[in-house]
Amino acid sequence: MNQLKLSLRAADDPRIVKEENGTPTFASVFSLHNTTRKGREETFPITVKASHELAPTLVNELKKGVGFVVEGQLAYYKSPETNRETYSIWADNFTDITPPKSTAAKAS
Fold first, then answer.
1. What is the largest CA-CA distance in the chain?
2. Using CA atoms, how far apart are residues 35 and 40, in angstroms rounded to an integer?
3. In this predicted structure, what is the pLDDT of residue 101?
């Protein structure tokens, strides 16, 4: 299995894909992972997906700009027509949820 633990920041507000009785049961959020290699910065777009009991956490807490750590399975896909690469993580756990940098600075 390709389990990983990654620190991300939500780049957009969450999207509810499916809900039952007003409670999200499947949701996703587009996020960015910044890394530095060989003196240059790279940003990787990653979609984080959550279902069942984690979907409400994703929807309620991972708003645009919020930082978080996700543990889960990494999935990779490369379109044969366009060569576009996409990454996604099926979440098993969320930790270290922190408010957006601008909000945290105002609270100080």
1. 50
2. 8
3. 78
Per DSSP, the three-state class of 13 is coil
User: How is 69-98 classified by DSSP, letter by letter?
Assistant: EEEEEEEEEE-TTT--EEEEEEEEEEEEEE
CA–CA distance, 75 with 9 (Å, rounded to integer): 18
- 29 φ, ψ to 5°? -145, 135
- Say if residues 49 and 90 touch (Cβ distance below 8 Å): yes
Residue 3, helix vs strand vs coil: strand
Q: Are 17 and 29 in contact (CB under 8 A)?
A: no
Q: What is the DSSP string of 20-74?
A: ETTEEEEEEEEEEEEEEETTEEEEEEEEEEEEGGGHHHHHHH--TT-EEEEEEEE
Which residues of the chain carry a pLDDT beneath 70?
A: 1, 103-108
Apex CA 44: angle with CA 72 and CA 97, to 5°? Answer: 50
Question: What are 73's two structure tokens?
Answer: 């399975």
